[in-house]
TrEMBL record:
Signal sequence interval, chain numbering: none
SMART domains xrefs: MR_MLE
Biological process per Gene Ontology, one example term: amino acid catabolic process
Protein name according to UniProt: Mandelate racemase/muconate lactonizing enzyme C-terminal domain-containing protein
Domain Mandelate racemase/muconate lactonizing enzyme C-terminal: 132-237
Molecular functions per Gene Ontology: lyase activity
Keywords, ordered alphabetically: Lyase
Stretches assigned to coiled coil: none
Membrane-crossing segments per the record: none
Pfam families linked to this entry: MR_MLE_C (PF13378), MR_MLE_N (PF02746)
Length: 277
């Protein structure tokens, strides 16, 4: 059977969420996500441009299309192209699985695990009475849902240097989180690359006594040397990866041993094809 891509459509189910649906001439459809936080119109335009190449092509030639889309233009990579390519790649894998009558992961070498543990977003960002009440209500709901791990982060903007009161407020909240959930639950933090290495090291060492499972992006992820400096200065794992876009960017992190945990985002790093590489 010679399949052809007949139609590519895009959807906006939520304010920042973008989805792409690819339909073949035989009626098989595949879905992918092209969401790019802060730039929703950009990936939409990128998919429209890439559609000019994809319409009429064989959807099963996934690797060929990935390489063509990535390499054919003068400028390569970047968060817009890689996010658009990620959604298209996901949709093509979806089509392939449906065409061959198997889950897509079986075409990629089958499953590595039977289940994956997940965490929920929960934290204490407001130490007022009403803020603590809201945090407690959400924690109760999440615990009833079966979660045993949570991730939070420092609220608001952080400067290169913050006064002791600002740091102490976050540290107090972190220890209170541990007090509420006990020692059988994992707690993680995402600093969203808000801090300088010196500030990140100071804050991380202040919270080490409540034993966080990891701290994600304590400093900007593009600075592997700064990540390594923080990693070598704290007693728990440092993580990064959701804003790294290709195997070449991850390669620098691996070779420098800058972090203990990598977190590639399948919707940004070029899709499942690039993630597997």
């Amino acid at each position: 059977v010679n399949l052809k891509i007949a139609k590519i459509e895009q959807y906006r189910p939520k304010h920042r969420t973008r989805l792409v649906r690819i339909t073949t001439d035989s009626g098989i459809t595949g879905w992918g996500e092209t969401t790019l936080e802060g730039k929703p119109k950009s990936t939409w335009a990128a998919v429209e441009e890439l559609s000019e190449y994809l319409i009429g092509q064989d959807p099963l030639r996934i690797e060929h299309h990935w390489q063509h889309i990535y390499r054919s233009a003068f400028f390569r990579g970047g968060n817009v192209l890689m996010s658009a390519l990620a959604g298209i790649d996901q949709a093509l894998w979806d089509i392939s699985g449906k065409f061959y009558g198997v889950p897509s992961y079986q075409l990629m070498g089958n499953a590595t695990r039977d289940k994956i543990r997940t965490y929920a977003h929960w934290g204490i960002n407001d130490l007022s009475e009403s803020g603590l009440e809201k945090s407690r209500e959400r924690l109760d709901w999440l615990q009833k849902s079966g979660y045993t791990a949570y991730k939070s982060g420092p609220a608001g903007k952080w400067r290169a240097h913050e006064p002791p009161a600002r740091i102490d407020e976050f540290v107090k909240a972190a220890y209170l989180m541990r007090e509420w959930v006990g020692d059988d639950v994992d707690l993680y933090f995402d600093f969203h690359a808000k801090m300088t290495p010196a500030l990140a090291i100071e804050v991380c060492n202040e919270i080490k006594g409540m034993h966080p499972g990891f701290v994600e992006e304590p400093v900007p992820q593009e600075n592997k040397d700064a990540l390594k400096l923080v990693s070598q200065s704290v007693p728990f794992p440092i993580a990064t990866g959701e804003r790294l876009l290709s195997r070449w960017e991850f390669r620098e992190i691996f070779e420098s041993n800058s972090v203990a945990i990598i977190q590639p985002d399948v919707a940004h790093c070029g899709g499942m094809s690039e993630l597997r590489r």
